[in-house]
Every structure is written in structure tokens, then in C-alpha cells.
């Protein structure tokens, strides 16, 4: 009988980066709940301020890029994509039922689950693209389509060209063409532009993971708690908001 191969050592550096992004997400959402759900004033936290916007973008960029980079590390990407998509569906059901004013229709979990499934479907085609070219093209497409959900080509405040209003009339919010007069989501990451950022990470991993694997192994003792956190991002993501909300509720009572 053939012996099963030994499990491949984890790239603890990726776990540490995920853990850092997760800590930032917990802090960001704690402040969001404190200010916008519990109604407390803050002298520095505002989701409309440039600093908080950059903070939020760092968090989501980190998760999406790392998820794309880690695609080829997974032995069962299809199963993982289905699991994340199922968790996203639960998140929508819970928010619509319990907190309809904070409903999430296509948030970051929906994006990541869909991105994994789409990449599984197109993997044979994506594998034919040279990694460097794929990374550059994906990054360029992300830059050009960053503002598509808001009616234009361009990145952040740089609007290169306005898009026809007819593209948004059918409210194809999953693709990235929402009718913002009727659609809202507390967390919104449509396929355009964010699938291109995921693929930027995917091609980065395709190009550099063979070299990075030599650094796999046991993390330094100081970083082990952070790596442990980063290796369990999905369950922590699923429970973090009720835990944060409950903790802040207790603080408010005190």
C-alpha cells in the first residue's frame, strides 16, 4: 500500500500577513460599530475620511491578494470556494433577517467564494498565461475598472471616462453595475473590479510561490499567535461581528 505523502509545511509568512489584516479588520469593525451602530462620537474615526478609507482599503486588498496568491496552495480549491460561498449566503441571510439596515448582498466573502469558483472554472485557460504578463494585465484591469461600480473608468478619485447609464439599469450588482438608486449593501465587493485584484494575487503566486516555498516551516515564537490567527480567518470572520457587538453592548451598559 502506498503511503500518503506528508502534509506540506505552511508558509507562515502568509499566515502572519493574514493575521495582521485580520487584527486590523477587527479594530476597524469595532470602531465602526462603536460610532455608527452605538452612536458614539469619535474625533478621528469616520468612514469618509481619507485615513479611514486607506485603512479599510489596506484590509480588503490584503485579504483579496492573499486569497488569490494562496489559490494554488490549496489541494481542494473547489471545496474551499463552495464553503466560502455557503458562509457568504449565511451572512446575507443573517444580516437581512437580524439587521436589515446593515444587509450584505455581495460582500468580501461573496467575492472570494465566487473568485475561487471562477478561477477553478477558468484555471486551464489562466495557466496558459505567463505569470508576469497575467499579473501586470490583472493589475492594469483593476486600476482601470476600480470605479466601474460608481459609473466610470478610473482609480479612486481619478475618473478617466464616464460609462453609459444604461449599463446600470438592470442592477447587475454582482458584476459591478449596480443601480445605486435602489441598491445598497453594507459590504460591497463586486466581481468588477475586485476579481482582477484576486487574479493579480493569483499570478503573483504562480510566479513567486516556487521560490517562497523554501521559506516554509515553523514561524518564530513571537509570531506564532499572529500566524495562528491568520490560519483560521474564515471562522473568525464569521463570528467576529456578533462577538464585537456583544462586547461593545456590555461596555455601553457599564
Strand content: under 5%
Strands, count: 2
| Element-by-element helix/strand order | HHHHHEEHHH
The tally of helices reads 8
- Termini separation comes to 63 Å
Q: Which spans have pLDDT < 50 for at least 5 consecutive residues?
A: 1-6
Task: Tell me what you see in this structure.
The chain has 254 residues and is mainly alpha-helical. It has helices spanning 12-37, 50-69, 77-98, 108-126, 131-145, 191-212, 224-230, 233-253, and strands at residues 152-155, 158-162. A hairpin with a 2-residue loop joins strand 1 and strand 2 (158-162). The termini are far apart.
Describe the structure concisely for a colleague.
This protein is mainly alpha-helical and 254 residues long. It is 60% helix and 4% strand. The radius of gyration is 19 Å and the shape is globular.
Strand-helix topology:
Elements: H1 12-37, H2 50-69, H3 77-98, H4 108-126, H5 131-145, E1 152-155, E2 158-162, H6 191-212, H7 224-230, H8 233-253
Antiparallel strand pairs: 1-2
Please give a handful of descriptors for the protein shown.
single chain; mainly alpha; 254 residues; 8 helices
Amino acid at each position: 500500500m502506498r503511503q500518503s505523502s506528508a502534509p506540506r509545511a505552511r508558509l507562515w509568512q502568509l499566515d502572519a500577513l493574514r493575521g495582521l489584516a485580520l487584527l486590523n479588520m477587527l479594530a476597524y469593525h469595532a470602531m465602526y460599530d462603536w460610532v455608527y451602530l452605538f452612536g458614539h462620537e469619535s474625533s478621528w474615526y469616520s468612514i469618509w475620511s481619507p485615513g479611514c478609507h486607506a485603512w479599510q482599503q489596506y484590509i480588503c486588498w490584503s485579504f483579496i491578494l492573499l486569497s488569490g496568491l494562496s489559490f494554488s496552495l490549496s489541494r481542494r480549491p473547489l471545496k474551499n470556494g463552495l464553503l466560502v460561498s455557503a458562509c457568504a449566503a449565511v451572512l446575507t441571510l443573517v444580516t437581512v433577517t437580524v439587521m436589515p439596515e446593515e444587509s450584505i448582498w455581495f460582500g468580501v466573502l461573496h467575492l472570494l467564494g465566487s473568485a475561487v469558483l471562477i478561477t477553478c472554472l477558468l484555471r486551464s485557460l489562466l495557466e496558459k498565461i505567463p505569470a508576469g504578463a497575467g499579473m501586470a494585465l490583472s493589475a492594469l484591469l483593476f486600476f482601470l475598472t476600480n470605479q466601474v461600480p460608481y459609473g466610470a473608468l478610473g482609480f479612486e478619485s481619478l475618473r478617466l471616462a464616464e460609462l453609459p447609464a444604461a449599463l446600470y439599469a438592470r442592477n447587475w450588482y454582482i458584476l459591478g453595475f449596480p443601480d445605486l438608486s435602489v441598491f445598497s449593501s453594507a459590504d460591497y465587493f463586486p466581481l468588477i473590479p475586485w476579481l482582477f485584484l484576486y487574479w493579480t494575487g493569483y499570478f503573483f503566486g504562480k510566479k513567486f510561490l516556487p521560490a517562497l516555498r523554501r521559506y516554509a516551516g515553523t514561524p518564530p515564537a513571537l509570531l506564532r499567535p499572529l500566524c495562528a490567527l491568520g490560519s483560521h480567518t474564515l471562522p473568525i470572520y464569521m463570528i467576529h461581528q456578533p462577538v464585537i457587538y456583544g462586547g461593545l453592548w456590555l461596555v455601553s451598559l457599564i
